[in-house]
Design goal:
Length: about 140
C-alpha cells in the first residue's frame, strides 16, 4: 500500500491539525464518495477493506453571495439593503433572476409593493428570519 506525495502531505497536515485541536476528515481511496469527519476519538466508523484511508484538515468553508433560489433560507425570510436598513421586505418567492419581495410603503399601512430584487442587488443586502438578527446575503460552501 503506497501513498502519493500529495496524500502524504495531506496526512502530515492532518496530523498537525489534530495536534492543534482542529477538525480532520478522512477518505477511503476507491470506496468513499466524499470526505467524512473523523470522530472525536479518531476511530474509523466505516471499514475501508483492502484500500487505504487518507486524511486532511477540514477545509474552511467558502462564502459566496446568493445566486440561485436554493441559497435563500426558508419561507418568511426578510431582506433589507445596507444603505436603507429601515426599509425591509418579506421574500415571497424566488426565480432564476432573483427574489420577489413585498414591502410596505412608508407612511401608508394599506399600500404594499411587490418587486423583483436581482441577485446582483442582493450582494449589498442583509437577511433575517426574526427581523432582529441580520446577516449578509451569502452562503457557505465546503470545497
Amino acid at each position: 500500500m503506497s501513498y502519493t506525495p500529495e496524500e502524504l502531505r495531506q496526512i502530515a497536515d492532518a496530523m498537525d491539525a489534530e495536534k492543534n485541536g482542529k477538525q480532520v476528515e478522512q477518505f477511503c481511496v476507491g470506496i468513499s464518495t466524499r470526505w467524512e469527519p473523523v470522530d472525536i476519538n479518531g476511530i474509523r466508523v466505516v471499514s475501508c477493506g483492502d484500500s487505504r484511508w487518507i486524511y486532511r484538515p477540514k477545509p474552511k468553508p467558502v462564502t459566496r453571495p446568493w445566486s440561485k433560489p436554493e441559497d435563500v433560507p426558508g419561507p418568511g425570510c426578510w431582506i433589507r439593503t445596507r444603505l436603507d436598513p429601515s426599509s425591509d421586505a418579506l421574500i415571497i418567492g424566488t426565480d432564476s433572476r432573483g427574489v420577489y419581495a413585498v414591502r410596505q410603503e412608508q407612511g401608508d399601512l394599506n399600500t404594499t409593493r411587490v418587486g423583483l430584487i436581482t441577485w446582483n442587488e442582493l450582494q449589498r443586502g442583509e437577511n433575517s428570519i426574526d427581523r432582529k438578527t441580520w446577516h449578509h446575503c451569502t452562503i457557505e460552501q465546503q470545497l
